[in-house]
Amino acid sequence: MRQTIERLRAEVAAGTWPVGSRIPTEPRLVEAYGVGRNTVREAVRALVHAGVLECRQGSGTYVVGTDELAGAVAQRVTDDRLGEAVEVRRALEIEAARLAAIRRTEADLAALDGALAARAAAWRTGRADVFVEADAALHTAVVTAAHNAMFAELYASFGAALRASVAAAVGPDLRPDRYVDHDRLVAAIRAQDPTRAAEEAARFLNHPSRN
C-alpha cells in the first residue's frame, strides 16, 4: 500500500490533479495502478487523513493541498484564524518582495507583467472567485522572482490560506473601494528597489480589507 500512497502523493505534487480538482474514481485508479480496490481505498484514506485529499459525499474525492503541510494549513484556515493567515502572509510576502527586487530577471518581469494584467482583467469580470485566483497568481509570481526554492515550496503550502485571506478581503462582491492596485509593487521590483518593494508589500497587508 505504501507504494500506492506515494504514487498518489506524487501525482498531486506534480499537479496531475490541481488543488480543487477531483481525482479519478476508485475503479479508474485500480485500473491505472494495477492494484486492488482495498489498496486504493486505504491509500486515499491515508491522504485524506493527512489533509491532502477530501472526500465529499455524493461528489467524489478532491485535492485540497499539494502536500501534508499544505493540507495541515488548509485545515486550520477558519474564519476566526484569518487574522493569523494575514500575519503569515506579511512575514512571507514582505521578504519575498524584497528578495525579488534584488534577484529578479527579465523573465521574472515578463511573468509579473502578465500576472498583473491578468489580475486587472479578472477584476473586470466581476467574479470574486476569478479575481482571487488571479491575485494569488501575482503574489506567487513575486515569490518565484525571489529565487529561493525553499521559500517557494513553503509559500506553495500556504496556498489555501492565501486564497482564503484574499477571498475574505474582497468579499463575495467586487466593490471599487476594495480594489488595491499592485502596480507600484511590481514597479519597485522592476526598479530593483528592495526597500520600496517591501514597503509596498506591507502596505496592502496592513489592513484586513486589503489583498
From TrEMBL:
Residues 1-66 form the HTH gntR-type domain. Keywords: DNA-binding, Transcription, Transcription regulation. Pfam families: FCD, GntR. It comes from the Bacteria. InterPro entries: GntR_C, TF_FadR/GntR_C, Tscrpt_reg_HTH_GntR, WH-like_DNA-bd_sf, WH_DNA-bd_sf. This is FadR/GntR family transcriptional regulator.
